[in-house]
Amino acid sequence: MMKNQIQTVILKGDFYKHLLEDYKSKITKRIKTEDYKIVIFYFGMKNNNYFSINQKKIFEKVGFNVDSIHTLDEGEFINLLKKVSNDEKVLGINVELPLPFNFSKKILELINPKKDLDCLNPINYYYFLISKKEDLESVAIPSVANAVYLMLSFYEIDFQKKDVVILGNSLYTGLAIAHLLIKFDSTVQIINQHTYDIPEKCRKADIIISVTGKVNLVDSSFVKEGAVVIDVGFEVVNGKIMGDVNKESLIGIAKAVSAVPGGVGLLCNLSTVINLYKLLNQR
């Protein structure tokens, strides 16, 4: 007798539209958005032009004027960042990562913590690290980590006290996701390029979260039956947006797998709007 194949659910992020309207309402009750400005810095590194364009659109939907600034000169960037950090009309600032290779990482310390839309300033990141799950409604969260949290929560995927493998260990992505899930007593294993026998370790996980930018890295050899796979990867190949996960190979094996495009990426920009609301409440 043949075993029934699992009905794999494709997780999409289009529910962000309803959440955006909710936060737009909350923000416009607090301030006149047309009186303030959002500033986004981008550098054209690792496709972040795409994110800066979509982030500009989402803040314009809330009602803000948005300045997108492109510079590859470190001195110019520092001067502009200092200027907007002290400008009373600038309510929020985001810097699309990664920074150019010649930029000092300490530059992010110059972001005004009260305007930091992606928890990039070390002060805000520290408060995120020490926060408990009960604090998350008021604490700014790195946008990628919060996007994963929103996806899991919306689809009622139980991640508390589960075994989670995260592929990728960047500070604001893989590590941030790990710290967030640990607050819910998840057991988290972080995988890097030097980890031995990655597929075997992934096959033991209830949830796999991939944040590497390596197209089609995760396939059926990585996933045990009934696992959930969250794809946070993003690459543009021949004009097509692709993720870390070979989604087609997981149909019938994974319980759920997130879409790329149209998945976690949609929730990342929403998360910066959520952070803005939290920062407003801290004033």
Structure description:
By secondary structure, this protein is an alpha/beta fold. It is 35% helix and 17% strand. The chain has nine helices and eleven strands. The strands form three sheets. It has a six-stranded parallel beta sheet with strand order 1-11-8-7-5-6. A three-stranded parallel beta sheet has the order 3-2-4, covered by helices on one side. A two-stranded antiparallel sheet has the order 9-10. Strand 9 (235-237) and strand 10 (240-242) form a beta hairpin. The protein is globular and about 55 Å long. The N and C termini lie far apart (64 Å).
Supply database-style keywords.
283 residues, alpha/beta, Rossmann fold, 2 domains, six-stranded parallel β-sheet, three-stranded parallel β-sheet
Q: How many structural units, i.e. domains?
A: 2
Question: What is the CATH homologous superfamily assignment of the largest domain?
Answer: NAD(P)-binding Rossmann-like Domain
How many DSSP helices? Answer: 9
Judging by the overall fold, what is the CATH architecture of the largest domain?
3-Layer(aba) Sandwich
* Strands, total number: 11
Strand sequence of the main sheet, in spatial order? 1-11-8-7-5-6
Strand content: 15-25%
Oligomer: single chain
Low-confidence stretches: none
Radius of gyration: 19 Å
Secondary-structure element order, as H and E?
Answer: EHEHEHEHHEHEHEEEEHEH
What characterizes the major β-sheet? 6 strands, parallel
